[in-house]
Each structure stands twice: as C-alpha cells, then as structure tokens.
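Incident review: delayed structure delivery

Summary: a single-chain prediction request sat in the queue longer than the usual turnaround. Root cause was a stuck worker, restarted by the on-call engineer. No data loss occurred. The affected request and its eventual output are reproduced below so the record is complete for anyone auditing the incident later.

Affected input:
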Amino acid sequence: QLQFVESGGGLAQPGGSLRLSCVASGFTLESYAVGWFRQVPGKEREWLSCINKNDNTTFYADSVKGRFTISRDDAKNTAYLQMNSLKPEDTAEYHCGAYFFCVVLPKAYDYWGQGTQVTVSS
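Output delivered after worker restart:
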C-alpha cells in the first residue's frame, strides 16, 4: 500500500517543540515533493509547508513561517517537520502528502497516511 506513515506527535507546552516524521511506504520519496498539512475536526485540511524534490526548495504558510522547518532525507525515505515556538492554535492532526512539485492545494497531494496528533496545552 502506497502511503506515508507519520509519527512524532504528542503533547507539548506552549513555546515548546516537536519534530514530526513521515516515512514513505511503498514508494520512493525522492521522486516527489512533500507537503505537510494539518486538520482540525470540522475544518478543511490546511497546507503548512512543502519541500521540492531535487533542489529542496521550501515553502511555508504565513501561519508557521519562522517557527516550522521542513526537511527531507531521501536516503531514509523520510521527511520531517521541526516545530518550534508551538502555540495552542497549532493543535491539530498533522499529515504529509506527495505530489510532483510544491503546490498549496491539498487535493493535489496523494499517499496520505493516518496522521499524527499534536496537542499544545499547558
């Protein structure tokens, strides 16, 4: 089955940090751009960041720019999202998806996994 397996979520305090991982299962990550997204119940999936294949160009939504950093290790078939200065409004289920190049439209992406829950609370 072609999908990502996300991990690294959990409970963090405001101002804290978490590092999320997504491992590509059944496909080769180096052939795709990778996007990170989050979703809360009742709301649409929100695009957060993307890293292109080959040149590793990165893009960020204004809501996370300067706080989150996306990266990838194609040798490990894994992408990461380092999240710093976390806020309660970052609470959501986080997912990654693959596409041929970076776009902000979640529907363009594929290989969604189950996601990993991030809760920011004191």
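Verification: Strands lie at 3-7, 10-12, 18-25, 33-39, 46-51, 58-60, 68-73, 78-83, 92-99, 116-120.
Action items: add queue-age alerting; document worker restart procedure.
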